[in-house]
Amino acid sequence: MLASADQRALDLLDAHLEALWDATGDALSPDPFSLAAGEGGELVHWTLDRLRSVPREPKDAFSREVGGLLAEFRSRRSPWNAAALRLLYDTYTFVSTGPRRREAWAHDVHAVFHRTVTDPRGWVRLDRDRANPARRTVPAHPFAPLDPANLPAHLYPLEAKSAVTALAIMAEEWQAEPAPVRFRPDRDTLLADARCLLERYGPGARYWTNATAAASDPAPDFLASGLQNTTSHCFHTCEYIAGLDIFEDLGVIAVNEEEVGVFWSFGAY
Fold first, then answer.
1. What span, in angstroms and rounded, lies between the C-alpha atoms of 75 and 238?
2. What's the superkingdom here (predicted)?
3. Are 192 and 66 part of one and the same domain?
4. Residue 30: which pLDDT band, with cuts at 50, 70 and 90?
5. Which terminal residue of the chain has fewer beta carbons within 10 Å of its beta carbon, N or C?
6. What is the layout of strands, in order, in the sheet containing 93-99?
7. Beta bridge partners of 211
8. What is the C-alpha separation between 263 and 269, in angstroms, rounded?
9. What is the pLDDT of residue 243?
10. Which domain-ending residue is among 13, 43, 77?
11. Is the dihedral of CA 11, 12, 16, 22 positive or negative?
12. Backbone φ and ψ of 135, nearest 5°
């Protein structure tokens, strides 16, 4: 278990790098905070040394370098982060975990959709829309403004093994996927990363999906169908904003006594 001071240093550095990467941190110093001798741990000091070595001009190159550094920092921070980034970083996905505060866990999932809670462990959230101006119109973008009371009506129970395959196919593209996961040489590695992500929630976790295949069978073979042949109850917004049209989505929700995990893939053009 990390000491609270080290955890705080990691969290602050993560937020600082993300602000620089988003180009919202132009006025920020490359050093986000001062550290006492030994404080923050080896990873924090390694990352700060790397950050100091990155030229701040031109700004677009600086942003790319910081984005790469942020991904490496997060991967080194925990095996869970590394698995999430390997599996889902390159596709349009939303990955976030929040605290379980209610018996009616749909309200906790709703909070994750709206980014009003943070990961209880400080682990990575994949959210390419975190700074999207579209959220001024649709705060939960790319999710529709759903009533939490209505969420369970559009979700089906899912067995753990099928939840793993659902996460694995989120590494695919919704259109013109040249290499479905079931045919990839690293298929087993992708499945191992998906299992790693779900193992976080423990053996007693329950899983839910919006995939209609689970309506009649809690153990559909998502690997066999692939992303393109998966149909779902739509949770995505239908708003056409800034030239982006979202046409499909697939989600998995993990629920235990302490946390709710949200994993969602979107098809858009």
1. 33
2. Bacteria
3. no
4. low
5. N
6. 126-127, 93-99, 259-268, 246-255, 206-209, 156-158
7. 232
8. 20
9. 74
10. 77
11. positive
12. -70, -15
**Residues 154 and 219 both lie in one domain:** yes
43 & 131 share domain: no
Q: Quick check: 168 and 83 in contact, CB under 8 A?
A: no
Q: Are residues 154 and 39 in the same domain?
A: no
- Which of 11-15, 177-181, 247-251 is predicted with the least confidence, judged by mean pLDDT? 11-15
Length of the chain: 269
Question: Which two structure tokens, joined as six digits, stand for 133?
Answer: 């101006």
> CA 166, CA 22: separation in Å to the nearest integer?
30
Q: Which domain holds residue 55?
A: 4-77
Whether residue 143 contacts residue 113, with contact meaning beta carbons closer than 8 Å, is answered with: yes
Residue 184: count other Cβ atoms within 10 Å of its Cβ. 14
Tokens at 5, concatenated: 């001071």
User: Could you give the C-alpha distances from 214 to 104, 173, 187, in angstroms and in order?
Assistant: 21, 21, 23
Distance, in Å, from the CA atom of 116 to the CA atom of 103, rounded to the nearest integer, reads: 18
Shared-domain flag, residues 188 and 237: yes
| 169 and 234 fall within a common domain | yes
Q: What are phi and psi of 240, to 5 degrees?
A: -95, 105
Q: Do 58 and 165 fall within a single domain?
A: no
Kindly report the pTM of this predicted structure: 0.89
State the residue for tokens 């073979």. Answer: 221
Q: What would the pLDDT profile of 86-143 be if each residue is shown by its tens digit?
A: 999 999 999 999 999 999 999 999 999 999 999 999 899 999 998 888 888 899 999 9
